User: What shape does this take?
Amino acid sequence: MKKISYYLFVASLLLGFTACSDDSDGGDDNGGGGYGDVSAIINDYVDKTVVPTYQDMKNKAWTLYGAVAAMEEGVTPEKIKAACDAWRATRIPWEQSEAFLFGPANLQGLDPLLDSWPLDQTQINKVLNGSGPIDAGALGYNVRGFHTIEYFIFANGKPKTSITDREFEYLMVVTELLRDDCLKLWSSWAGVDALEERDAEALEAAEYAPANPSYAYQFKNSGKIAGAFIAQSDAIDAIIEGCYTIADEVGAQKIGGPNETAVGGNLAKAVLDVESWMSWNSLDDYKNNIVSIRNSYLGGREGNRGASLSAYVKERNAELDKEILDAIDNAYNKIGSIQAPFRDNLTGPAVDEAMAACSELEKTITKVQTLRD
Assistant: This one.
């Protein structure tokens, strides 16, 4: 359930800008029509929003991997619950990263590997019914990732009480793959110097080497070096477009898709279209998507804010800044007003209001681009 067109657009920008001159000054005229010198905003966006979010995710992915590996000595309800808790915890930073799915998440195809929905349950069952070892390299994007793990450990919003030996074998394989994909995403931004010993060992086993220089370095130096955006203004536009793209996805696809199907009378299909319906984590996912917008706009995660688009907008148009902040809060609150679990409450005024709030948020954020010189 991804907005592929936008991310392909950003990929084309990146590929087209690899010829950017090393002696470019990074100013607002490099790509035509800029925001002035926004180095501080770009730097803090990387250092206080993107990299810490991905670092949090990779650390929690290690915890999830450990919780699942603990079942090798015997599967118990307590161990399954520990895995469920770790899955929910890892899910938070992932969903809080969805406003910045450009760069490595898109270019390396990590987004669909981590979070494709719906699953191909027919293919999953084919693997389960096989007799040979499970080949990690043969698992496509819709039979691995967060939701395949969810499929094995959750039922009706609660931890399962048991799983079969074959299910555990499959679960162990896809949990290791998810851990490695989280490591790839984080290390691509953070760089090789940030790797801890266990990170480096896991990536070596996965035959993966992070790019050098890191994507964080490239992004911060947009307009200055080859391999990044041709101007700072393009980097800022990528941030803005990432925000309004996920606002649209939450309202029109994640909520709107199942809602439309349910209104059309096919409730069984509508439930299957709800992301994270097996864990009943859907509404938390959607709210965290809005948090990803808030963090991107406010220049960092809560408790660690820095130079921000919000301050930039406020200086030039205080009313617009307030409008954007109110729209972010309204979308978050309206999603929170939907009765949980979402799979059982796909229609009604609360759902309609949440979709409308996300649509308004999308439209409001685009107004930042009117501040270009």
